[in-house]
């Protein structure tokens, strides 16, 4: 099906902006409706052919994913695409961990899942997130420095040096999936 012929809803839940940025890029590219997750009720989605849901990753959970997982039966005839935005590097292991943590076997079979890299700026976090991240830092520091792998070192470095991996080109596989 071509871009114009499907009615697409792009729904997002974003805490610090990167998921929103990806959702805006996707909605613009496919001429979809951009909707903020908390405003959406499942009944509002019946007119759409394709539901694209994006949520930021917090402790492996995809924010707002319940809109899909709690209403799966009502949405079962629709094309469903979920994307999660996190800071971890893209590895098959990390992606499988996110999928297994958030979806049942039945849902896994029916949706298309994508992982996109976002941004992290410790100074801009709210108090609770700062405390959570400090706890994670403390846990990591309990390990000996020499045992830290490159990804963990990069994570620790990002507390002092903000990182931003958001990249419009990264949405290409999602656009391709919508247009299938
Ligand atoms: C408390 C906390 C927990 C996080 N947990 C994860 C995680 O489990 N995996 C990951 O890849 N990124 C994690 N991140 C990084 C965020 O997912 C990343 O900053 C993302 O860009 C946030 O999306 P948003 O800007 O749309 O809110 C975490 C960030 C915070 C503050």
TrEMBL record:
Pfam families: Flavodoxin_5. Residues 8-160 form the Flavodoxin-like domain. SUPFAM superfamilies: Flavoproteins. One of its GO terms (biological process) is heme biosynthetic process. One of its GO terms (molecular function) is oxidoreductase activity, acting on NAD(P)H. InterPro entries: Flavodoxin/NO_synth, Flavodoxin_CS, Flavodoxin_dom, Flavoprotein-like_sf, Protoporphyrinogen_IX_DH. This is Flavodoxin.
């Amino acid at each position: 099906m071509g871009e114009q012929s499907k009615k697409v809803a792009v729904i997002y839940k974003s805490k610090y902006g990167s998921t929103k940025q990806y959702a805006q890029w996707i909605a613009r590219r496919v001429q979809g409706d951009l909707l903020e997750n908390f405003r959406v009720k499942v009944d509002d989605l019946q007119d759409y052919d394709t539901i694209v849901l994006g949520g930021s990753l917090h402790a492996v959970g995809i924010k707002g994913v319940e809109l899909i997982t709690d209403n799966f039966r009502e949405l079962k005839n629709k094309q469903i695409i979920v994307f999660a935005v996190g800071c971890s590097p893209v590895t098959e292991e990390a992606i499988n961990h996110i999928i297994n943590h958030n979806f049942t076997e039945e849902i896994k079979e029916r949706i298309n899942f994508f992982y996109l890299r976002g941004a992290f700026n410790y100074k801009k976090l709210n108090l609770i997130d700062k405390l959570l991240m400090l706890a994670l830092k403390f846990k990591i520091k309990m390990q000996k420095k020499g045992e830290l792998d490159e990804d963990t070192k990069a994570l620790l470095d990002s507390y002092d040096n903000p990182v931003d991996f958001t990249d419009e080109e990264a949405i290409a596989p999602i656009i391709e999936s919508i247009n299938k």
